[in-house]
């Protein structure tokens, strides 16, 4: 478990993303679009942390943490869309129909919830064999 140059870059990028997310949310929360900007900056940082943990080998010890993070990319698309939509139309708040964009994330996370009832060895084998991505199995 060595902390190489790439790992340091991932760590610094994630820390900067968390800080930027916090600052955008605290200072510029009056504009509704900035809430989405802050949220997907936070998600990008979580994905960088997941990449760092994977590279450092934490997936071998705690594979459940890595499986939880695998659904996060399904949030980025809807957040980008809602961010752009709220930038174009300032008065727009989230409507009930906008929540439909989050259905793929919910489905993926419900699928990964089934892994909580398996042993860590089974989860590690599934993660390493990349059977996680085939929902049909």
Outline:
The chain has seven helices and no strands. It has 137 residues and is mainly α. The protein has one domain (5-133).
Structural description of this entry:
The protein has one domain (5-133). The chain has helices at residues 5-27, 32-56, 58-61, 63-69, 73-88, 103-113, 120-128. Residues 131-137 have low confidence and may be disordered. Helix content is 69%, strand content 0%. Helix 1 (5-27) packs antiparallel against helix 2 and helix 2 packs antiparallel against helix 5. With 137 residues, it is mostly helical.
Task: Give the helices and strands, then pairings.
Blueprint: H1 5-27, H2 32-56, H3 58-61, H4 63-69, H5 73-88, H6 103-113, H7 120-128
Helix pairs in contact: 1-2, 2-5
């Amino acid at each position: 478990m060595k902390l190489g140059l790439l790992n340091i870059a991932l760590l610094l990028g994630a820390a900067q993303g968390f800080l930027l997310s916090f600052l955008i949310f605290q200072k510029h929360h009056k504009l509704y679009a900035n809430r989405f900007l802050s949220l997907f900056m936070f998600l990008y940082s979580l994905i960088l942390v997941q990449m760092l943990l994977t590279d450092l080998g934490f997936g071998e010890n705690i594979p459940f943490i890595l499986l939880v993070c695998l659904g996060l990319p399904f949030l980025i698309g809807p957040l980008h869309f809602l961010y752009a939509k709220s930038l174009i139309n300032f008065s727009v708040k989230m409507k009930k129909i906008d929540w439909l964009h989050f259905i793929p994330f919910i489905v993926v996370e419900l699928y990964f919830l089934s892994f909580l009832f398996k042993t860590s060895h089974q989860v590690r084998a599934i993660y390493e064999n990349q059977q996680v991505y085939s929902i049909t199995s």
